[in-house]
Amino acid sequence: MTISIIIPIFNEEGSIRLLYDKLKSAFSPYDGQYEFIFIDDGSVDNSLNALKEIALKDVSVKIASFDKNYGQAAAFDAGVKNSRGDLILTIDGDLQYDPADLVKITEELRDEDVDMVLGKRINRTSGTLKKISSAIAVFFRNKVLKEGYQDCSLAGYKKKCFDNFKLYEGLQVFIPALLAMEGHRYKEIAVNEFPRKYGQSKYNLRNRIFKALWALCVANWMKRNKLNYKIIETVNGI
Questions:
Q1: For 22, phi and psi rounded to 5 degrees?
Q2: Cα–Cα–Cα angle for 24, 68, 119, nearest 5°?
């Protein structure tokens, strides 16, 4: 089993070194079996240089740097397409999640009946506005798509989930739903959330609710119109 940990980075220079140290410590039992894939999403601070300093001393650290900011969907897609692991893990670069919880997700993915393991935050530390907007978005998503999971970027997937997967801008929060449409099975496990120490949140009311509702309409259309037929007989080997 090999592991690829994808970490999107956008102006997170204050947290990069500490995040790397925590990841390195958490995955020490898997030495030689993992790679850290940092996707620099067009940072305008010193994030890229901080990553390069780490990569010079650690060959398990891979970096892909965008020419400008494209967003989480593009960062996730680039990470998956440049990964070599059997398992794909994701974590944000802002230190609001504990890398040790990724190890728990890794262990849960050993279950042959599970294709993806999603984090479920048990102690939300976000501001009031962010909590409310997130709760509204999750409520509508689960109501429309008839799903029941929380929105959390700390997650793990078996690489096979993405063999024929196509991601579009704004649909990154619906990755579990899109994969479930293809028959992949998921489970949730409790994970911790911590207050942001460095930098600023990249989300606001506009991109958390309005853009999410637009993307929900797209995901719902895809689910309702997915081809679902069964051949009952063939002739001459068709």
A1: -70, -40
A2: 40
Strands 116-121 and 186-191: parallel
What's the CA gap between 74 and 118, in Å, rounded?
Answer: 20
Residue 11: left if φ>0, alpha if ψ -120 to 50, beta else—which one? left
**pLDDT tens per residue across span 25-41:** 999 999 999 999 999 99
Treating both helix axes as pointing N-terminal to C-terminal, what angle do 211-224 and 128-145 enclose, rounded to 10 degrees?
A: 20
**pTM, entire model:** 0.85
Torsion angle, alpha carbons of 105, 133, 18, 107, to 10 = 0
Q: Which domains does the chain have, with CATH numbers?
A: 3-126+150-196 (3.90.550.10)
Q: How far is CA 71 from CA 47, 104, 116, 165, 207, in A?
A: 16, 27, 22, 18, 11
**CA terminus-to-terminus distance, the chain:** 37
Residue 131 φ/ψ region, left for φ over 0, alpha for ψ in the -120 to 50 degree band, beta for the rest = alpha
Check pLDDT > 70 for residue 50.
yes
Using the Cα atoms of residue 39, residue 44, residue 47 and residue 48 in order, give the sign of their dihedral: positive
Burial 219-232 (b: 16+ CB within 10 A, else e): bbebbeeeeeeeee
What share of the chain has pLDDT > 70, as a percent? 85
pLDDT band with cut points at 50, 70 and 90 for residue 200: low
